[in-house]
Amino acid sequence: MLKRRNKILSIIMAVTIGAVSLVGCTGSSSNKSSDEKVVNLFTWANYVPDSVVKEFQKQTGIKVNYSNFSTNEEMLAKLQATKGSQYDVIICADYMVQVMGKQKNILMQPIDKSNIPNYKNIDSAYLNQYYDKNNKYSIPYSLGSEMIVYNPDKIKKDIKGISDLWDPSLKDSEVLLEDPRSVIGMALTKLGYSINETDPKKLSEAKDELKKLRSNVKVFDADTPHTSLINGDTSIGVMWGSQASAALKGNSKLKIVYPEEGMQFEEDNFIVPVKAPHEKNAEKFINFLLDGKVSNEITTNTEYINVDTAAKKYMSQEYLNNKAVYVPKVEFSKAKHLEDVGSATKDYDSIWSEFKQQ
Q: What keywords were assigned to this record (predicted)?
């Protein structure tokens, strides 16, 4: 979820890896599309492993055209531009499903679960979430969580949670995600507020807290925050689980802390655009990825939290013992989720800009 995590400010255009190649045949263009052995996937780069894509193509004869985006906002802009007609399956974040569900012209179509028998494999703990209460439009794919990673050889303080990051002893030693909602959310958490706060007064308090934190921050990095920990440029940081796992592989002495205030989770989901040209192929693709063995292969590669109960029997002991990617379900019970903050987005952007310029 990194992939991806500079959500609000990034406007990088998507790189298209695959394109639909229409074959000539009689009948309407919509019939031609529905008969094609093609499924057009749109998600973050490398989020569905190449080995899984190849196996699906081998088993079904359906070609996967894989296009990627850098941010959820970029995905939404592309989906709006095409009026939901170019892609068959999109994997995007929970809050973006919420944003799209609020729109007058919904660009997602209800997913027929009866055509996806492996839907039964999804752990019920991850269903019926705030962004799509009955999973009408979305099906969970994977889960990311933010955690603290630190070097105990350099950090002598007992790190328990987000609030500890303000300690003066950590001056010029921290790496944070270059993500306004993540960092401002930390300040709101320290104050005991929701990470989705919209009250201007409370956001102003968060801005003041960030001023106190700024001298502790040495590096901002959305994609590879673990690198500075491995090379010793920083001693402590906040990052997503897959990045934390990479950090420990680079330096086994590093320690992981699940923040006592609760972890920020992001649940990524399958959606099917309203005018998907190959709806049936989309259902087959989603069902394939929810197979237990396939799901385990995916999360072994991506190192995000697996939401598929049928995958556990395939998991290696190494995976099950990896604190970065196999997070106890009890942590999800006190999870913090990003939600759409509407017009308050401009306040978040302003706070972030000031914080970065300090």
A: Periplasm, Signal, Transport
